[in-house]
Amino acid sequence: MKRREDLSAPRSSRRIGVQYDSDVFGAFSESIANFLGTARFLVFQTIVITLWIIHNIAAPDRFIFDSWDRGFVLLTLLLSVQASYAAPLILLAQSRQERRDRITSENDREVAERTQSDTEFLAREIASVRVTMSDMVTGEDFGDRLDRLHDTIEALSAQVAQLSDARTGAAPSGDTSDSSSIVADEN
């Protein structure tokens, strides 16, 4: 059996022995991308390129390192290298930011769902409390009922007094204390 067909052991990877931490490298790329996207960098780059061109045009021939005659080949090479490294670093930083934004939006969605379910639960609880409270007697209702009960007791007392007076043959009077003593004497 050939080694490629042997599935009992994992294959060894044929990578170059370079190991790196993707989070550290990602943080580094984000710091570079953040610096490249500032006005400070653009001003600094403009000053360096301007000084480069002025020096290579105005300096004596022995101090020129990138001549105008050759079309500033070294400057073009440096800017190309900068662009070739800046673009992937910016893309890497953007992809990390997209991952963070996706995680944040998923967390926000979960929080919104929990908030909605909690709100619906609280709305049901408030509705049940309202239903329960509608069946309860309030202080005003209780006072009204006591007043009606008091009026009923007074009316019954007056009727008892009239009946007592009618039995004894006495004239009805407004004094209920006499009628209550008569009722007590009859018992």
Chain oligomer state: single chain
Distance between the termini: 122 Å
Q: Helix amount, in percent?
A: over 70%
Radius of gyration: 49 Å
What is the mean predicted local confidence, pLDDT? 82
Low-confidence stretches: 179-187
Biggest β-sheet description: none
Structural classification: mainly alpha
Q: Helix and strand succession?
A: HHHHH
Query: DSSP helix count?
Result: 5
**How many E strands?**
0
Report the β-strand fraction as a percent range.
Answer: under 5%
The backbone outline, from C-alpha atoms, is: elongated
How does this structure look, described?
The chain is mainly alpha-helical. It has a domain at 20-135. Helix content is 74%, strand content 0%. It contains five helices and no strands. Helix 1 (22-36) packs across helix 3 (73-135) and helix 4 packs across helix 5. The longest helix is centred in the middle third of the chain and has 63 residues, at 73-135. The N and C termini lie far apart (122 Å). Mean pLDDT is 82; it is low at 179-187.
Summarize the structure.
With 187 residues, the chain is mainly alpha-helical. It has a domain of 116 residues. It is built from 5 helices and no strands.
